[in-house]
Amino acid sequence: MQLLIGSEGTLAVVTKIVLRLLPLPKVQVDLLVPYDDFQAAADTVSDIIAHHIVPATIEFMERDSVLAVERLLQKEMPHHDAAAHLLIQLDGHRREAVDADYEVVGELCLEHGARDVLVARDQRTRDRLWEARRLIIDALNDESPVNHMEDVAVPRAELPPLLQGIKEIGRQRGVRVVCFGHAGDGNVHVNVLKDGIPDERWETLMPTVSEEIYRLALSLGGTITGEHGIGATRRQYLPLALDDAQIELMRRIREAFDPNHILNPGKIFPG
Amino acid sequence: MQLLIGSEGTLAVVTKIVLRLLPLPKVQVDLLVPYDDFQAAADTVSDIIAHHIVPATIEFMERDSVLAVERLLQKEMPHHDAAAHLLIQLDGHRREAVDADYEVVGELCLEHGARDVLVARDQRTRDRLWEARRLIIDALNDESPVNHMEDVAVPRAELPPLLQGIKEIGRQRGVRVVCFGHAGDGNVHVNVLKDGIPDERWETLMPTVSEEIYRLALSLGGTITGEHGIGATRRQYLPLALDDAQIELMRRIREAFDPNHILNPGKIFPG
């Protein structure tokens, strides 16, 4: 299964999928947790997982993403000046088990210096806590209709240097970069905004910024894409991430499945 | 990872493994649950999983395996005349969570007609509950030093017809067959005992019995081996489980990794 998943249609056409279904969780608790410091938020995530608790989601938003939503909605978001927010969703089958997890997670957040722990147990409050997260893309598109998204991933513990490095690349290249993503997976959605940058400069700037972000993620033991895939856009960068022997082996596996190169040609493999 | 795992050394030599460690569970509860009917035990397993509870292990033993241990130890085992036993191990990080799971599991067992639910919370009681399971192989070897083990697997819901069919094969072929295994995985360890069968008859009988067991497992949507692998012993039976196109694709993947056929030659692929 792992061979086909992520092969981007280059190995097979899937004609049938048998799904293993899990019952929908009956109980859900959502937490919005503001921090003055991204490192503290990242430390909390590691600590939650070290406590054997597996939340359904641990999302993070950095300040610039929350501020963009504020400007879109023209209203103040809770703790809008916090350096970072975590959004943690706990779920399960039994109220007591989820509550026990929630107690531990709440305490860990505060121990790591969270400003507050906002809790949602019903759909209306939940929608309010998730409002900023859900509107980030809209807010960024509204401010800069042209923008570019990367989705590098690193081991969870390397999220703080990744975030810091990405912001630094933005500063050095004179371009606005706004991040949010999946803290539990170490996966960051990096939005590079064109804003008022002239077209010509943007065309040369954007690949430079992307490559710097890829190299940073790789230097931290990560990967150039967590969810979005290599496809056509990133195929020329694959040799940054994999050596010749690895790419050659991948080509040979493709050859085994698709000797006539009829399955999604032109994807993944560099020129 | 899934491509290499189970490839039995035919695709690569592993030189480095990075393990993701989980903290050892702090709390453990073990249950030994006797049933008068294997179907009821299997239904309990499905119901436990439908309740979103994931035990560390759910083992089963059929009566003949417990009786063999009794003869070895020359003492009476608890509920030795039960048709089947489940051994369920629950673990976790927090006492309350494990206890909550244990309450639900215990009730489900009784609802499905378990005779009793024997509980172990300390190592001494735990060792007593697991004694029969740990000694099955010794007991069978003691009674029949020559025997043959298969390890077919089927979807969990098909365990009862699999067990029933295996016992029937044994009766028809005049050979003693004793089963135990991993009820949570649908994986059955089938022990075919030579007992007093003459060597010559055993040599022809054993492959027949094995093939009948494989065909039964496949007819129930299962596989000819759950854990033990194809290796050299089962490679002539691979075409029962996979069609020509599937085996040819596996050969081509092996070719991609090992064009010189130096990695564990002679394994997996039929003649």
Provide the fold topology.
Two copies of one chain form a homodimer.
Chain A: E1 27-35, H1 38-50, E2 57-62, H2 63-73, E3 84-92, H3 95-111, E4 118-120, H4 123-143, E5 147-150, H5 159-173, E6 176-182, E7 187-193, H6 199-219, H7 238-241, H8 244-257
Antiparallel strand pairs in A: 1-3, 1-4, 2-3, 2-6, 5-7, 6-7
Helix pairs in contact in A: 1-3, 2-4, 5-6
Key words describing this protein structure:
17% strand; seven-stranded antiparallel β-sheet; 271 residues; homodimer
Distance between the ends of chain A: 27 Å
The fraction of residues in strands of chain A falls at 15-25%
Q: What Rg of chain A, in angstroms, do the CA atoms define?
A: 20 Å
- Which pair of protein chains has the largest interface, and what are the residue counts? A-B, 23 and 24 residues
Largest sheet entry of chain A:
7 strands, antiparallel
How many β-strands of chain A, per DSSP? 7
Determine the number of helices of chain A (DSSP H or I, runs of at least 4 residues).
Answer: 8
Helix content of chain A: 40-55%
Order of helices and strands of chain A: EHEHEHEHEHEEHHH
Oligomer: homodimer
Outline of this structure?
The structure is a homodimer of 271-residue chains. Chain A has 271 residues and is α+β, with helices and mostly antiparallel strands.
Structural notes for this entry:
The structure is a homodimer of 271-residue chains. Chain A is α+β, with helices and mostly antiparallel strands. In chain A, 43% of the residues lie in helices and 17% in strands. Chain A has eight helices and seven strands. Chain A has helices at 38-50, 63-73, 95-111, 123-143, 159-173, 199-219, 238-241, 244-257; strands at 27-35, 57-62, 84-92, 118-120, 147-150, 176-182, 187-193. The first copy, chain A, has a seven-stranded antiparallel beta sheet, with helices on both faces. In chain A, α1 (38-50) runs antiparallel to α3 and α5 packs antiparallel against α6. The longest helix of chain A is centred in the middle third of the chain and has 21 residues, at 123-143. The first copy, chain A, is globular and about 55 Å long. The mean pLDDT of chain A is 95. The interface between A and B is medium-sized, with 23 and 24 residues.
